[in-house]
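Good morning C.,

I know you're traveling, so I'll keep this short. The sequence:
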Amino acid sequence: MFAGIVEKERKGSTIGTIFDIMKYSTHDGPGIRTTVFFKGCPLSCPWCHNPEGQSVRPELSFSLDRCIRCGECVKVCPENAISVIDGALLTRRDVCRLCGCCSKVCQSRAREIVGKIMTVPQVMKEIEKDIIFYDESKGGVTFSGGEPLMQPDFLTEVLQSCKEKDIHTAVETCGLAKSEDLARIEPYVDLFFYDLKIIDDVKHRQLTGISNRTILMNLRGLTQHHDNIIIRFPLIPGINDEEDNVLQIRAFISSLRNVQEIHILPYHKGGIEKYRRLGKEYRLPEIQPPSDQKLSRIGDIFRRVGLEVKIGG
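The tokens, ready to paste straight into the viewer:
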């Protein structure tokens, strides 16, 4: 079994799979932040703009626009998974074993392996480089994905290490996790960003592949113990922007303890090119971003019950 799934030990340190560490972020919590993206997600949302975070396994990303057709990747591939047909480089992904040989010789960085196995000390080394910026801006670290709670042992240890360094921590979660894993990380998290997409369970199953019962139960339980939770509502036109769903989300939030803020995240097309590079199909090609008027109307629905509303991350 792939090591990133089971979080095996490497020389005494828990390992996990990370697909990006983004520095100087200003959209994932207060101040200047480092965002650590965990690989793997239990949901299958068709609008997902981070498709590289869906699978727990490393993946090959190939950008045709960057490719200079030097042919070096063809020469070094031990599986003969890359070939030239009519002047174009084609990769048989079913044969590729993700050895990384092609990405190492790719001068234009058209080929990259997305997903890196890292230890807790390796992640902390990257985080600690920016402590001075956290201190000056009242920032910190945000753990995102994918879904960080897909790797609960790794997440817990990194969070604990951050708290030992007095670094502010935030976790972005879809909420689909074991309640005991959520309870385990809670003492080490200063801020939760918690996604709510659809309240109707049948529709949630149809769109994401999973029931939302655990998600709603975990959120209700979390609000009994944690006082800093921001709801994130990804707004997808024609999918979850109907008034009934918005009112149901509002009613559910209103029933919770100490949740005062919601961020409405308008749909955008920023992830479509990532699907192409990963050889995946994008399932919502026709959907357009919501209008400013639509965002304003939905924002007002939440404001009417006293919620603080922010449009965007």
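Safe travels,
E.
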